[in-house]
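Task: sequence design from structure.
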């Protein structure tokens, strides 16, 4: 099937008529569809459409925009299974996970419906009599949204919904690895009542479409989720024109398990955190930090369970782990396995491409565990984005915290312990934007801030109430009803 861009309320091909083909990572012989390979001229048209649509859209009362977001949530609910299957076919993760991905989009839309009636500013006392001081939040204008493939419904919704509710119009570039999900999202937004020109979908490569979004003078804010390298490039480009920019980047997340922890619970957590989405989450558990008293016991438990993970096409309800997204990512994971071996880490299980049965047609890799990993090894420091877990031995909780903080990233973290004092003291010392106590490093909820420190981003937070700070400007208003000139901060006779 041939899919289109959506610009100014109309579906159409790229001006160049060029296309790219998206294939199923579980079966590279299966074509998902043919999509526009757009260029700068297409982005220019999308920006013009968004600019023209902006005055009417931002003039709508926010509760009216909220009603549209509720209708969008209703449509996501109605089409949840369809969207989950679209996701699984185009990016591979199992149906239980893609259903959860769509649910996150539903939750985000319904949260926005409520937020539309509590879009609070501040009223504060004035230092002068008969004077009011207030703040309002206003849309920035045209928002450029650049999204990844690993959560092809949730992450676009995390950006689209708050951008639109805030009164912005949008130019949206999804990943080339998840174009079908994004197309369906835009179809449902229009069905929900978003007018033509308010959302504009432009498929294509980051080097063309992405760069054109960054440099376009009519775009006032850019929101990006992806790699650190690309994030640095975006920050540099947006800095030249002083665009607002929000970056949600990588992670090298650690789970600490202390000797007093519920080991069965911690085992379930690390399996889900390390091998859910085939390790292709920015919050995936990449490092397991074990107190030495339980190191051997827990590692034995973990290997036994990891070797039983059911690998296959995510459309099969019996499967627990699907493929990697592409041959390029498969080769990257294979490379890091060799790096781990060369560094002296012990390959405890996995480390191989999985080719049984129909999996030979896809990009499958066995759950992989390295033992005896040192914190300075590359496999413990660099983001792999695959089902590879590095296990680190520590003497006590202090060494565990030093190990988890010994990273250039700081997105998600986890600690398992029955000692509430240790847990809360660790929370204070762990350098991460998210910390789970007795839970895995994955599992963010839509009504709380999401983001990290260090190389994980530039300080903004998606999710919850904080995402609206990305897409709005604050207007401060003074109302003087004294009937005379009052000079703030000027000493006067009383």
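Answer:
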């Amino acid at each position: 099937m041939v899919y289109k861009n959506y610009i100014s309320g109309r579906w159409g091909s790229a001006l160049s008529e060029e296309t790219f083909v998206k294939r199923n990572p579980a079966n590279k012989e299966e074509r998902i569809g043919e999509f526009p390979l757009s260029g700068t001229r297409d982005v220019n048209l999308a920006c013009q459409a968004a600019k023209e649509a902006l005055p009417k859209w931002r003039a709508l009362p926010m509760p009216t925009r909220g009603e549209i977001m509720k209708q969008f949530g209703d449509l996501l609910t109605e089409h949840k299974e369809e969207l989950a299957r679209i996701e699984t076919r185009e990016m591979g993760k199992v149906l239980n996970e893609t259903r959860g991905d769509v649910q996150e989009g539903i939750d985000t839309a319904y949260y926005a419906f409520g937020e539309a009636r509590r879009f609070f500013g501040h009223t504060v006392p004035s230092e002068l009599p008969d004077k009011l001081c207030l703040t309002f939040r206003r849309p920035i204008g045209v928002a450029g949204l650049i999204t990844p493939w690993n959560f092809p419904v949730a992450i676009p919704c995390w950006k689209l919904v708050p951008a639109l509710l805030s009164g912005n119009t949008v130019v949206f570039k999804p990943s080339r690895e998840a174009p079908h999900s994004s197309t369906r999202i835009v179809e449902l937004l229009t069905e929900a009542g978003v007018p033509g020109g308010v959302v504009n979908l432009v498929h294509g490569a980051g080097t063309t479409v992405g760069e054109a979004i960054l440099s376009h003078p009519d775009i006032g804010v850019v929101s990006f989720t992806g790699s650190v390298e690309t994030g640095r490039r975006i920050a540099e480009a947006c800095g030249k024109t002083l665009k607002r920019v929000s970056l949600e980047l990588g992670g090298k997340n650690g789970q600490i398990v202390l000797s007093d922890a519920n080991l069965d619970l911690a085992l379930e957590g690390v399996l889900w955190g390390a091998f859910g989405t085939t390790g292709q989450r920015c919050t995936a558990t990449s490092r397991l930090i074990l107190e030495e008293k339980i190191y051997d016991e827990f590692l034995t438990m973990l290997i036994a369970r990891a070797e039983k993970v059911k690998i296959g096409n995510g459309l099969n309800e019996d499967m627990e782990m699907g493929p990697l997204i592409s041959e390029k990512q498969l080769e990257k994971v294979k490379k890091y396995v060799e790096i781990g071996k060369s560094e002296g880490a012990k390959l405890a299980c996995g480390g191989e491409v999985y080719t049984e049965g129909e999996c030979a047609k896809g990009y499958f890799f066995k759950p992989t565990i390295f033992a005896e990993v040192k914190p300075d090894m590359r496999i413990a420091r660099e983001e792999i984005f695959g089902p590879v877990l590095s296990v680190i031995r520590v003497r006590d909780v202090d060494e565990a915290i030093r190990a988890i903080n010994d990273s250039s990233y700081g997105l998600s973290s986890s600690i398992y312990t029955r000692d509430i004092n240790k847990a809360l003291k660790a929370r204070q010392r762990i350098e991460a934007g998210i910390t789970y106590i007795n839970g895995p490093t994955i599992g963010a909820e839509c009504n709380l801030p999401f983001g990290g420190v260090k190389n994980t981003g530039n300080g903004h937070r998606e999710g919850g109430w904080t995402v609206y700070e990305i897409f709005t400007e604050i207007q401060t208003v003074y109302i003087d009803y004294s009937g005379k000139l009052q000079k703030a901060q000027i000493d006067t006779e009383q």
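The mean pLDDT is 97.
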